[in-house]
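Why do we bother with holo predictions? Because pocket geometry can differ from the apo form. Keep that in mind while you read this record for coenzyme A.
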Amino acid sequence: MDYEIRYATDAEFAAVAELDGASFGFHYGEQELADARLDIDPARIRIAARGPQIVGVSAELSFVMALPGGADVPTLGLTWVSVELTHRRRGVLSALVEEQLRRRTAAGDAAAVLSASEGGIYGRYGFGVATRVAHTVVRRRRARLSRAADPSAVRRLTTDQARPLLPELHERWRRQTPAGVSRDERRWQFLLLESEHLRRGRSGLFHLVHPDGYVSYRIKSEWGEGDPQHQCWVTDYAPASAEGHAALWQTLLSMDLVGTIESYVVPLDDPVQLMLGDPRGVKVTHVGDSLWVRPLDVTQLLGERRYAVEVECVLEVRDELLGDGRYLLRGDRDGATCVRTDRIPDVTLGVSDLGAVSLGGTRLAQIARAGRLQADDVALVGRIDVALLADQEPAHGTPF
Ligand SMILES: CC(C)(COP(=O)(O)OP(=O)(O)OC[C@H]1O[C@@H](n2cnc3c(N)ncnc32)[C@H](O)[C@@H]1OP(=O)(O)O)[C@@H](O)C(=O)NCCC(=O)NCCS
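The structure, written out:
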């Protein structure tokens, strides 16, 4: 197929949004279009165009992402990916994504990341599932902290009051959380919008702010004929210390009229379940893949992170798009180096599997059990598996 890959012009923004809407099943009205200019940067929308017709879109975000141990690496986020219905399965997506991955590797990004609409699309481009998302449902009337926390340092604030405080608190949370991605001013503006189409029948935003973290939420009223069962939908969750975490949960659990506190942003291993007298007060009703990671610069991605125990090994990474490579990795809790080498590899694996294990949330041992890596020394694979583990589940924390 004959098309040109380039950045969209500002005048093409509405056409890009129209294509995105048609692909995901909704129309962009005036408000939606204005809000979309905050969701993505109109200057970073890559398109495939046949003359004046846009047949494919893949928008780019640039941010830093925290690795286990706290270092940040420059990262490409992909979003708004869609191809015109009449032009599918002819290689448009492949042409767009492969060009982006090559160009951003040359620009120095350590990895590309995305959330996938369907599971079968991105493995072929070298993306692997690195983090998981959980739908958490806390049954408020059943959930009591076994050791009551002091909520007096928590303030309930309006968006205008909370706005100057949230970025610094979020940044503190992010730097402790593997996979945590940074937010620029545009992202903050988008996340705090109150348009009806973003509220989805829920209230405006409320914010509980502690000196060590915050929780933002919306309420959906459900009066239940005399048995109120409002839903508290947590949209943003950034407790940055154990004290802040306990105080914020103590406050959330005191919301009379609320039946459930629900969220897709409370991490899978959040300690709240262990803090309740009855752990069944928290239910996880769905677990799915969240952040897919595609290594672009292996030396950065592995060399900048920290390792749970001392490790030394040679990894061979199979990568059809950017080229195979062998890497000598040495690391521990204090530092690491990862350099190209000619040495015989201890472990050979695909680049998507390296992406999956890179943030410590997917286990190398599981990839070995799936028969997806080659290694002679089983004991060494076991040590690398433990070294790669992060102290907590990675979570990127910002929808995009
Ligand atoms: C997903 C989408 C962008 C794919 O675009 P496309 O131009 O048809 O993709 P390509 O022709 O480049 O496909 C490349 C390969 O991926 C496969 N593929 C594409 N979409 C797939 C899907 N949804 N599930 C499984 N495989 C898929 C193709 O079969 C092809 O495989 P091959 O290389 O073995 O032949 C397009 O179907 C779309 O717009 N879907 C709706 C919106 C959406 O889900 N976007 C993704 C958001 S994360």
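The CA atoms of residues 155 and 209 lie 5 Å apart.
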